[in-house]
Structures are given as C-alpha cells and as structure tokens.
Specification:
Length: about 290
C-alpha cells in the first residue's frame, strides 16, 4: 500500500497537476485581493448589472415579461462566455510577454501545470462574478427564481459546459496574439455578438439574419440556458420557438466544447514551440520602448 501511495505521489503528471491547482489558487487569491485586478475584473459586471437594474420596470412588448428579469440570467451567460474567452486569452498573452510561459515550457510537464493553474484562476473569477451578480439580482431586480433541484442542475450545467465551451476558445485566441495589448481588439467582435445574442433584449425582436448569426455562437445559448434555469416556463413565450430548447442548447455548447478541446492543444503546442529566450527578450525590449 505504501509503495502504491509513493508511486502516486512521485508521478510527474500528478505532481504537475497539483502544482497547477496550487498556482491557480494563488493567482485567484492575488486577483481578488489586488485593487487594480478587482477593478479590471468587476467593472463591466457591475456596470452591466446596474444597467439591468434600471431595466427592471420595463416589459417586453405585450407579453408582460419584465426586461430586467429577462436580462439578468442572460447577463450571467454573457459573463461566463466573456470572462472564459477574454480572461484566458489575455492571461496567455501576458504570460508570453513576461517569460512566464517560457519558464513553464522549460520545466518537465510545466505546461500542464501552467494550463491547469490558468483554468483554475479564470474559472474561479468567473464563479465569483456569477455569484455576485446572481445574489444582487435576486435581491434587487426580482423576477427570477432558483428554488427547485432542476433549476440548480441547469444552472450548474450551464456554468460547467459554458466554461468548457469558452476556455479553450480563449486559449486559442491567446496563442495567436503575442502582444497582450492587441487582445483588446478581440473584445469588439465579442461585444458585437453580445449585442445580437439576446442578452439585454430578446433575440426575437431582431432581424432574421442576425438571429441566425447569433445562434452559431455560444453566447446566445448560454443566455438561453440561464433563462431556462432562472425564469418560469411562462417566460419562454419571448423565445424564438416559445420554448427553452434544452437539447439544442446542450448540443451547440457541446459542439463548441469538443471543437475547442480538440483545437486548443494544437494551437498551444505550436505556440510553445515558438517560445525561446531570444523571442521573450525581443518582446521585453519592445515593451520597454513603448513604456518610454
């Protein structure tokens, strides 16, 4: 028994995974205790939930369904998608520039530990954002409910499946951009998708071609899944088919998760092969020139 335990403890992959979880926990704590990081991570969630708060007395056409209660769960889906993609992409790009990724590459199984750590940190920030918005929304906006086992199950499933569908996409984006300042340009198409994905206004009120475009990407389906968890069945009247479309939701998000999990390792390996001391030094020199 002792020999088996010793072998498990000395397994390089197990040790790297444990190191990754420790790294992710430390990075998460640092993010949640640093003023600038807190501002960067929670400014847009707070601004968005305030916008939803002022929508709480509005209604969608003649359905009687409140715009605030529709937008709140949609906002949760948007946070999962945006933080998953943008947080992972920005973290990878920053770590490439300062040499963190190169150090991970030089360590046996270091890339595994690094990726686990980044997943833990980004997922942790996402979970905190979702909990804060959910608690505030239930207390101040109303119109949502989370009082059944089925609702909790869908909420948790959307959180897990949403991260699986968006974190790999963020890793792919982060592997393409070596300059973290260029990652900001990625936010523009993402916000464009938010605008047409029924987050702040039901998608059924948009032109047909925009409806089709939005349904290709995960943001719409995450919003729909969250609405199905937090709203009564009567609210489905504002949806495209007057139903919550659970099978389609899990199907589309599942496809994105599989595609991301298949393609992300390919992009990450390609990125890691290109990392070297001279490349990192050149990036630092350019960063210093921009600073001065």
């Amino acid at each position: 028994m002792n020999s088996v335990t010793s072998m498990t403890r000395s397994n390089p992959l197990t040790m790297s995974a444990r190191a990754g979880f420790r790294r992710g926990r430390i990075e998460l704590v640092q993010t949640l205790t640093n003023g600038m990081d807190i501002f960067a991570q929670f400014f847009w969630p707070v601004a968005s939930v305030l916008a939803v708060f002022f929508m709480r007395n509005g209604h969608f056409q003649s359905t009687g369904v409140g715009l605030g209660s529709l937008a709140l769960p949609s906002l949760l889906g948007m946070l999962i998608a945006f933080t998953g993609m943008f947080g992972m992409a920005q973290g990878l790009a920053m770590d490439r520039e300062d040499g963190t990724l190169l150090r991970a590459k030089a360590t046996p199984n270091g890339m595994l530990g690094y990726l686990i750590g980044k997943i833990v940190a980004v997922s942790g920030v996402t979970l905190v954002q979702v909990l804060l918005v959910l608690v505030f929304g239930i207390a101040a906006i109303g119109g949502v409910q989370l009082n059944t086992v089925g609702a909790w199950a869908i909420l948790i499933a959307m959180l897990i499946l949403g991260l699986l569908a968006t974190l790999p996409l963020g890793a792919i984006i982060g592997s393409v951009f070596s300059n973290p300042r260029n990652i900001g340009f990625v936010s523009f198409p993402i916000m464009g998708l938010v605008a047409i994905s029924g987050i702040f206004y039901p998608i059924s009120g948009l032109p047909g071609w925009l409806q089709v475009t939005a349904q290709v990407f995960p943001i719409y389906w995450l919003g729909l899944g969250m609405r199905s968890a937090l709203l009564p069945d009567s609210a489905a009247v504002v949806e495209l088919t007057h139903s919550w479309r659970h099978l389609e939701t899990f199907g589309v998000l599942g496809v994105w998760a599989v595609l991301g999990l298949v393609l992300a390792p390919v992009f990450l390996r390609r990125m890691a092969r290109r990392e070297s001391g001279s490349v990192v030094a050149a990036r630092r020199e350019k960063a210093m020139q921009r600073a001065y």
